[in-house]
Amino acid sequence: MPLFGRDASQTDPASNAREASHRVTLDLARSENLALMVAQSRASNVIEIADLVAGMYLYGWDRLSRYWESEDQERVQKILRNMCRISPERWNYWIQLYDKNRRAKEELASVPKLLRRFRSAPTTQPLPERSPELTKLFKQAEEIAPLRDKSDGRDVPILTSECVLLCVIRTRGTEISRKLASSGMDIAQLEKDALSSRRAPRP
Question: Nearest-5° angle of CA 45, CA 99, CA 74?
């Protein structure tokens, strides 16, 4: 169930500036934004792997659902909601936060440029950063990513949701990896899509 739009095979400019070692596709960038909101709802200063999986689920379930049999998908969604700690209260928090941020951006855009310099900058809390485990996960995804882009003479990996999710599965010894692996997920198909130089087909 894509929350904010369809998947697109393109890179996200904000992520490009933030992460020089890789770029991310638009669907992964939006999943990361939702993961950040999940972390904020827990009043956490770090984004955990479970938060990112929650972001992928919330943004791209229609895309990820193809890795399970159709008769198992309701059961799998319950597993994911429990695993990622998605409660109705947190869902409402994320929606309200997203709407608040959207309205703030629209309000700022309506102010003439000449007047913007006189507006006092709002005091904001530092945004959660990736946890060491999530940072390591992205480094692993960089190593297996089949998609590449040239930047300043460097070969920069482009990360997809499938590529990162495969690294989650391959992270042995973690509860989230174990639960995903035992959920009936078609890991062979995920691996094929993640390691292909062509994006997986849209649902």
Answer: 80
